[in-house]
Amino acid sequence: MLVHPEVAEALAAHRPVVALESTIISHGLPRPDNLRIAREIEDAVRQEGAVPATIAIVDGQARIGLDDDALARVAGATGAGEVDKVSVRDVAVVAARGGVGATTVASTAHLAARAGIRVFATGGLGGVHREARDTWDESADLTTLSRTAVLVVCAGVKSILDVGATLERLETLNVGVLGYRTERFPGFYLRDSGHPIGWQVDTPADVAAVLRAQDDLGTGGYGLVLANPIAAADELDRDLHDRTLNAGLAAAQAAGVRGKDVTPFLLEFFHRETHGASLAANVALVVANARLAAAVASHYAASHD
Ligand code: PSU
Ligand code: MN
Fold first, then answer.
1. What ipTM was predicted for this assembly?
2. Helical H runs in 173-237?
3. pLDDT tens per residue, the chain (305 residues)?
């Protein structure tokens, strides 16, 4: 594992660091916009006074914090071969083969915790797929968070998933869910998924206090989700959303898409069918999450004794 010097220095000095995932860059956002957006997300973290640590596997090495060249490789901008989507179980394989891999929420959380980074920002968490009763398709994001000391700042989970089942699984797995200025679990492109959550927090300092209490009480080994709804101005039109979702689910089924290809397929479908409206929403919410994560990391770092 190679921790970028800027990230290592910040961690050693107890200055704020925010981990960022790379699957969103390689598989969640269309090329060539993805590289520019990846930089925008890092800039948002810096603007809030924290150091960004985008995580990926490059030439077999797990990297915590990417330089510009590595970021371009993960974005597929150098044309130097394919980038694998890498969950926790794949990390060692891609590393041993010397490959290039983009890390999911699960593997990013794992590597972030290993590097001592407590706060992580992304767009949407993986979860239980709608047809899970038949396919058993549940993202390893959930089980990984049940044993990884990381706060994940996200805009909820996408409506392509079974949101209610995902919330139930998070409860079973001891993963806390906090709503940022809301008591409704957000629905990624939409502010409200239709599901309530138990705890509302109103400031980054409140969130940092929960992290400190977790550390003190020994529940810090479990992940925590900070659900930050997309801004009202950036929300997708609900009718457009519902139409696209139904069409996308039908298309995925007709095409026989399975396993780890399901999420990228549906994301791409949304971006194409909404003529970029879902992409604009996606970028807005990720940048907002990066900012909020940086603010939380700053308060958490400041509370170090
Ligand atoms: N949700 C999104 N955008 C994404 C993903 C999820 O809105 O890019 C990615 C994340 O990396 C997440 C992964 O960890 O998909 C989940 O994939 P799976 O369902 O195959 O575990
Ligand atoms: Mn899956």
1. 0.94
2. 204-217
3. 999 999 999 999 999 999 999 999 998 898 889 999 999 999 999 999 999 999 999 999 999 999 999 999 999 887 767 899 999 999 999 999 999 999 999 999 999 999 999 999 999 999 999 889 998 999 999 999 999 999 999 999 988 899 999 999 999 999 999 999 999 999 999 999 999 999 999 999 999 999 999 999 988 889 999 999 999 999 999 999 999 999 999 999 999 998 888 888 998 999 999 999 999 999 999 999 999 999 999 999 998 76
Q: Which atom of ligand 1 is nearest to the CA of 259?
A: 20
Tell me the C-alpha distance between 41 and 85, whole Å. Answer: 20
Distance CA 287, CA 40 (A): 7
Q: Whose CA is closest to 122, among 48, 206, 52?
A: 52
Measured CA to CA, the distance from residue 56 to residue 171 in angstroms comes to 29
pTM for this prediction: 0.96
Nearest CA to ligand 1 atom 20: 260
Check if 263 has its Cβ closer than 6 Å to any atom of ligand 1: yes
Distance 158 CA to ligand 2 centre (A): 13
User: Is the Cβ–Cβ distance between 3 and 10 less than 8 Å?
Assistant: no
CATH superfamily to which 2-302 belongs:
Indigoidine synthase domain (3.40.1790.10)
User: CA–CA separation, 19 vs 2, rounded Å?
Assistant: 14
